[in-house]
Structure formats: structure tokens, C-alpha cells
Amino acid sequence: MIFPCLISQSAETAADSSLQDNVSGFSGNPEETLNALGRFFKNIWDSFVAAIPSIILALVILIVGVILTKICLKLMSKGLSKTRLDLTVIKFTSQVVKILLYVLLLSMVLSILGIPSTSIIAVIGTAGVAIGLALQNSLSNVAGGFILMLTKPFKIGDYISTNGVEGTVSQISILHTRLNSVTNQAIFIPNGLAVNAVVVNNSLNEQRRVDLDFSISYEDDFKRAQQIITDIIKAHEKVDKQKEIFVRMSEHGESAIIITSRCWCKGADYWTVHFDLLEQVRAAFIENDIEIPYNQLDVNVRKSV
User: Fold this and answer.
1) Contacting residues for 135 by C-beta, under 8 A, at least 6 apart
2) Among 3.30.70.100, 3.40.50.11540, 3.10.20.340, 3.40.50.300, what is the CATH number of 207-287?
3) Between 209 and 296, whose confidence is greater?
């Protein structure tokens, strides 16, 4: 316990003596101290003046580089748009090239300012490791973006449903996929989720099948209802008449007979056919006195004696 006390006391004594020496030196030789400070600030000013040409050159290259980068990106987009590449690939490629060009431009500017390229590479590498550890999910989304470009489960303009949401694909960026819902809401899905989740692409195939169920009362004529539904489907202009039109009894329900209908149409006409058939069949049932039943509950009340 004695030695630490002695060491701390000696350290405090040395610090006090050093401070006293500095104060006494400043008070004893104020002119020499001021001259040293003057030389220090003069060296800083001289270094700044000497670096002005490099700073101006770096600013000029930065401005010119930004302008040239934008021009290159526009020319590249126009060139890619004339090819047979998909719009999704074109936009994703443009984003990746944009990032690479700006990183290259920043490296050139730092080199002109006198920062060695080895130091730049070391800083970028260190920053990359740090960012990679901090943003592991974002990196998985970046990898997911490249996987989407390679596998192409969907493209811009497709109507998809995934991860509990659905909408039309409007953009596939490096980190996320943007959907526009039917109510015009913007939905952003991380690419990592889009790659690992089940995706239902409603626009990939040229044609879709429209499945509809209709119910009639047990007292109504099934054959008559079946013929009415068949005639309405055949009369619809957007239904593909070359494929089978299926109208059959599918279930004996608790309070109704269920008739299942199936027909084919173009994917873009799916909802038009779907809603048209629902409306037209109901109107035909009403016109032909075919009852559309609903769940009923019979209650019998017994009078106790």
C-alpha cells in the first residue's frame, strides 16, 4: 500500500514541475514562444496555399466527372433500351453501373488530393468489412437482387403476390422490389424476402382459368341453371372458346346445390371476365326465377304442458 502512494505522489510532483517549467518558459521567453506559434500557423497556411491548385483540380474533376457520369448513364440507358433485354435488367444494370462510376470518381478525386491509392483501398476495404458486419440484412438483399435478375421469377409489369401482399411490379432495385397495389399504394419488399418466399406470378402465363361457384335452391331445375351459366360463358367475347368450358354440379350444400364453372381467358382479361360472369349469371337467375339461396335456420318452439 505504501509503494502506490509513493508512485502517485511522484507522478503528481513530476506533472506539477513540468507544468511549472512550461509556464516559466512561456513567462520567461514570451517572444520565442510567440515566434514558434507564428511559424506553426505559417506552415499551415503555406501548406494550404500549396494545396490550392490540387483542390481546384479535384473540384473541377469532381464536377466534370458527375456531368460525364450522368451523360454515360443516359447513353447506356438509351443503348440498352434498343436491345432485347428486359426492362427489369436494364434498370438494375443502370443502378449497379451508377454506383461503380461514382466510386471510381471518388477514388480519382482523393488521389488528386494526395491521398495514396493504397490508403484508399485500405479504407474502402476496412469500411466494407465494417459495413458488411453492420448491414448483414442489406447485403442479403443485394444478393437477392442479383438472384432475381438471374432467375427472373417476375419482371416489371407483372402482377404478383408474395409475403402477404400483392400488386404490380414497378421497380426492382438493388435492395428492394416495389409493388403498386390495386389501390395505388407503394409496397416495398426486401429482395432477400422476395427470393426466399413463395411468389405467385399472375402475369407470367398468357392465359388464366376463371373458376366460379354458383348456388341454386334444391327446388330449382339444375339442368336449366347449368344451361344458363353455359350460355352466358359462351356468349362472353373475352372467353377462349377453343378450350373446354366446364359447368357441373360440385357439391350438395346444407341449403343449396353448388355449381362450379371453369373457363379460360387472357391473363389481362381475368378480372373483367370474373366480374362480368358474376353479374350476368345473377341477373339471368333472377330473370328465370331461379332462387339464389342463403343459409337459413329453422327454429321449432314446443309448448310445454
Assistant:
1) none
2) 3.30.70.100
3) 209
